[in-house]
Amino acid sequence: MPEQLPVGAYTHLNFAFAFIDPKSFKVAPMSAADTELYSRFTGLKDSNPGLQTWISIGGWSMNDPDQPTATTFSDLAGSSSAQSAFFSSLISFLQTWGFDGVDIDWEYPVATERSGKPQDFQNYVSFLKNLRSALGGSGHNYGLTITVPSSYWYMQHFDIVAIEKVVDWFNVMTYDLHGTWDSTDKFIGPIVNAHTNLTEIDLTMDLFWRNKIDPDKIVMGLGFYGRSFTLSDPSCTKPGCGFSGGGNPGKCSASAGTLMYSEIQDILAAGAKATMDKDAAVKQVVWDNNQWVSFDDEETLRLKTDYANGKCLGGAMVWAASTDDTVGSAAQAYIKTNGLVSRSLFGGGANPKEEDVLSACIWGECGKDCPDNSLPAQRSDGKNRGNAGIYTGCSDGQTRNYCCPKGQEVPTCQWRGGAPFCDGKCHSGEVQVSSDTSATGSECWTGHKVLCCTSTKSDAGIGQCKWEGSAPFCGKHGRVGEHYGCDESDRYEETYDSLGAGGEEYCFSGYKSFCCTKPPPFTGCGW
Fold this sequence. Notes:
Layout: E1 12-20, E2 27-29, H1 34-42, E3 52-58, H2 72-77, H3 80-97, E4 101-105, H4 120-136, E5 143-149, H5 152-155, H6 160-164, E6 169-173, H7 198-210, E7 218-223, E8 225-231, E9 243-246, E10 258-260, H8 261-269, E11 274-277, E12 282-287, E13 291-295, H9 298-310, E14 315-319, H10 329-335, H11 354-357, E15 362-363, E16 374-376, E17 378-379, E18 386-387, E19 389-390, E20 400-405, E21 412-416, E22 430-436, E23 449-454, E24 465-468, E25 491-497, E26 512-517
Parallel strand pairs: 1-3, 3-4, 4-5, 5-6, 6-7, 7-14, 17-21
Antiparallel strand pairs: 1-2, 8-9, 8-10, 8-13, 11-12, 12-13, 15-20, 16-20, 17-18, 19-20, 21-23, 22-23, 24-26, 25-26
């Protein structure tokens, strides 16, 4: 269930998968039960500021020759009318359920054995360009990525040079390098090999470097599962030995040849001993006489993330968070290697100390009272008196209170900037603490309103920082991914975002910068 995911180990979560209806070309749930999960999945952002939730569309089985969706991607990429229907459906889907982006997981364009067509090579590029344009015209800064295979045999069918200009990044499946399917490969055959291997991963990356792909646009795949085999000869247990079939199914995975991380941990807990292949950065274990599986743990995950950092890759991704155990053992290993170790594993971000919370005004949680020892700031504008609240990040009409410490002067606040042409600015002696396009009930046609509070000891720090850059083109030069930066030399960029203070217009391209004075008024900041 979404609430059981160790979200603190990740900056982005993808819901895998949604399909495409082969007749209407509208986004369709993979199963009827998924629709109930969408809002719970995107709702994880409520208690995890900065988390992004994406939808992945496609997957390996969508191109299975015996499926009605076998040629759907090819049909979609080759038809402008089908694309129009898909784009409209997708944008509605993203808006309805609160997703932040879409990952297109078309793994086998062109490949005839996987229902591909020769024209897919060019059509995929055109499709992605059209999709990027449609997303950009939606009024939201939706992300766009694609998932690509790691083998040259399938990657040759992607025009990665042209696609790089369109997508935010490539998710590279540097797992599933080997499995029982090797038995029918005339170049490999039925021999045991690890499903993830750093030496082979390096060869995959070389395919990108030969095409001068920016390393920052490469996200390397890691596996929270293992590929298992039944050995042909129990006395021959190393890579290169023969196998007679997939390993026995696990209790949960229930699939021959695959074991979840949690199932592998049970095998180790029962006394099986793992061995390390340092060059390949993978471990393997033999048990029950003839069962063999390869897997990653903290030691091998660190070797792989060190490799990714050394190559200046954009990041790493995991397949799949749902294969972890109930206490997040794999995520606990991973979080020690990916720079997020200070975060709470099961949500809520880093746990603030009480004295930090109570030393300055903070935005409270959606629909909840202010924390102990703090009071909600009040509005002072006109007849709309009461708690100063914002809707940012909340659902079902809930709001967040602006909570300030007891024992100090509590500021009063009011919205400034009248509709429809809003140009909200705070007065002297006030600090801007939020923004919105529809506060006080009237909608801004352009610009946004700002929530201004009297400057007191408890909210003075926020007055030393401000968001710079304006929608829709937030970068100074209009380049994709560009940060606006700080106009004043005595300020530095603390962080960046496509939305800014919340409630503002989204950036179609680039990012707004949160610029603070030096020395910084805050320490230990994080989303």
